[in-house]
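Before a colleague's protein record goes any further, I have to sign it off. My question to you is simply how this chain folds and whether the tokens agree. I do not need a full report, just your reasoning and any doubts. This is what I was given:
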Amino acid sequence: MLSRLNRILGRQDGEHRETKGRQKEDGLQSPGHTSRNKWFWGTTRKASSTPFFLTEQEQQLNQVDKLTLQLQMLTNERNELLELLARYNNNELNNRLKSELDMLKTQHKKEMSDIKKFPKEICEASYKCKELSEQTNSYRTLYSQLLSEWTRLMEKVSMLKEDNRKLQGEQILLQESCEEARRLCEEAHEKIYDMWTKQQQV
């Protein structure tokens, strides 16, 4: 209802300004004023030496015309407002205001309830942040320990690789020694067999 009143007042204010503009342009072309203009211009033509100005009576008549027009516009506005207000009785207005007030109270109660929850939520969030900070520090310490252990293991792996390389070298030497010992054993066996054969012949 208030928005409709605002629209009506805005429309009428625009019409009022438009009417004023037309009045300034047309010079309030009312029937009486038209006849007065004819009389005035006729008088001016008859006495060209007379200065161009309105008499005090004509100014008063113009003022009366303006006030009459404004009074008519105000009357029309009043009638429209009365017609609009007549559609709503006091009970309907009271019920509507009460409904809106109840809705605002409910909304206010909800917002106040949410505001009361804020300290608890802030405390919970702070506690969670503290826990996360402690977990982060614990993970950082664990990561440092794991990194140190990994470095130590990598050094040990490097040492084992070096030992393996040495062992492989020693294994190659042992294989060569075994081959040489086998060859010597075979030569010795052949010599012994030859000697035994000769002894048997003798």
Remarks:
- Helices lie at 2-26, 31-46, 56-86, 90-201.
- Confidence is low (pLDDT under 50) at residues 23-52.
- Residues 153 and 159 are 10 Å apart (CA to CA).
